[in-house]
Specification:
The complex is a heterodimer. By secondary structure, chain A is mainly alpha-helical. In chain A, about 55% of the residues lie in helices and about 0% in strands. Chain A has helices spanning about 1-10, 15-30, 50-55, 95-105, 115-125, 130-155, 155-165, 180-195. Chain B has one domain (about 5-225). Chain B has nine helices and four strands, in the order αββαββααααααα. The chains are: A mainly alpha, B mainly alpha. At the A-B interface, helix 2, helix 6 and helix 8 of A face strand 4, helix 3, helix 4, helix 5 and helix 7 of B.
Chain lengths: ~200, ~230
């Protein structure tokens, strides 16, 4: 009984949680290697057979998706075709520079500046556009938090310290400033930890 | 498990391309409740704490400054909206993105506090939330590979679950658990709650409660045990 209590107490320490979690997650992922692979070949976004386009001497291989820009739709499949009726129309879009390179070199598809640009646009901004909004929202929130902390905790720190030093009567408690109270707070905690161990 | 027995009769869908939000009485109820709580949090003001200390007669007033108040309120509203979105989304990857947004905003709400041990706990929680993006998105990717679709409608209409789908669902569950800080990760969140600014801190807790209900529903759709 006391052993279980000790186990729970050790779990109550926030420092240990990420380490324990990393070990558990690693174990689960290792177990995952034993799971039989089961790939649904009827994928939502189909890909051609490997090397097929290379053997057909298409210069944008393996990224040729068929179709002509604004004339005929290329190969893109949507989960709900009724929701995206003009799917595939900009599937094979290439910039003028890319068209020139593709016309001079047969290896455009393997070069670093080639990309299935039109296809990615179709997916990112048409069929799964809401996901793109959310992804950029996540990024924006990360930058909002980081810049807010940067402005208020790093850049204005000297100013806050000067204000706190000037105002003796101020009872605003701010242990992130370099004052004795900070260390009192830490010591109190470390005492508690020692008692537990 | 079919959608009707989980959420009730399907009232309609909101099509956004491949991402279709679906409206059933259950999901609409949770959506509206989260929005009501978000509104209440948006119009409320923070609490102020008095901290006594052992061994001395001193006590500290722990209050939230105006700038910190504004930043926290903004992040709390975003967190509430993300939770509300996670309630009605009908797409697995969309759901994981909402969870990731909730996770990062939760860290942001407590990141501006001025108590050192709360910041320590928030740091540990942030590490867990970052690690959890691996099982969260990995689980969704494994489900996509084994079913060929991300739409919960399509997955719900499938007959049986393969072992790889179940493994993907387990990974997804680990990711949700870590990202929202439920059961085994309570220690970090309990420390985070010690800071003043009560209503904004509560949205962290509220979002994890609602998300876990929704995650269990999605697990039932994926695993098909019943």
């Amino acid at each position: 009984m006391s052993r279980i209590g000790r186990l729970w107490n050790s779990l109550a320490n926030p420092d240990r949680i990420p380490k324990l979690f990393a070990i558990v997650l690693g174990a689960v992922i290792l177990i995952g290697f034993l799971i039989p692979l089961d790939l649904n070949v009827d994928q939502l976004y189909p890909r051609p057979v490997p090397q097929e386009q290379v053997e057909e001497n298409i210069s944008t291989a393996p990224y040729a998706r068929g179709g002509e820009v604004l004339e005929s739709p290329g190969i893109t499949r949507a989960q709900y075709p009724e929701n995206s009726k003009s799917l595939g129309w900009i599937n094979s879009y290439m910039s003028p520079l890319a068209i020139w390179v593709a016309s001079t070199s047969p290896y455009f598809g393997t070069s670093i500046y080639s990309s299935p640009g039109g296809l990615i646009d179709e997916i990112l901004y048409y069929t799964r556009g809401f996901d793109t909004i959310l992804e950029s929202t996540i990024l924006m929130m990360a930058f909002v938090i980081a810049s807010w902390l940067g402005v208020n905790f790093t850049m204005n720190r000297k100013k806050r310290e000067a204000e706190a030093a000037a105002d003796k009567s101020k009872d605003y408690y701010d242990p992130t400033l370099n004052k004795n109270k900070t260390y009192y707070y830490n010591n109190q905690n470390s005492n508690i930890k020692e008692e537990q161990d | 498990m079919d959608l009707a027995s989980l959420g009730g009769e399907l009232l309609g869908t909101i099509p956004l391309g491949d991402i279709v939000l679906y409206l059933t009485p259950f999901h609409l109820f949770m959506f509206v409740v989260v929005l009501i709580f978000t509104f209440l949090i948006a119009i409320s003001r923070t609490e102020t704490q008095i901290e006594g200390s052992f061994g001395t007669l001193k006590d500290h007033k722990v209050s939230v400054g105006l700038e910190e108040f504004k930043a926290r309120r903004f992040l709390a509203i975003i967190c509430g909206l993300a939770t509300a979105g996670a309630m009605i989304t009908g797409d697995l990857f969309n759901f994981t993105l909402f969870i990731a947004l909730i996770g990062i905003v939760n860290v942001g709400i407590v990141s501006a506090v001025k108590q050192v041990d709360v910041l320590d706990a928030a740091y540990q929680y942030g590490i867990i939330a970052m690690i959890c993006s691996l099982p969260l998105f990995g689980g969704a990717a494994i489900v996509l590979a084994s079913t060929g679709t991300l739409s919960l409608f399509e997955i719900a209409s499938m007959a049986s679950a393969t072992p790889m789908m179940i493994f993907g669902a387990i990974l997804l569950m680990i990711g949700v658990a870590g990202e929202t800080g439920i059961a085994p990760f309570f220690a970090t969140k309990a420390e985070m709650f010690r800071t003043p600014g009560s209503p904004f801190i509560l949205i962290i807790h509220l979002s994890s409660l609602f998300v876990i209900i929704r995650a269990i529903e999605i697990l039932l759709i994926l695993v098909k045990v019943i």
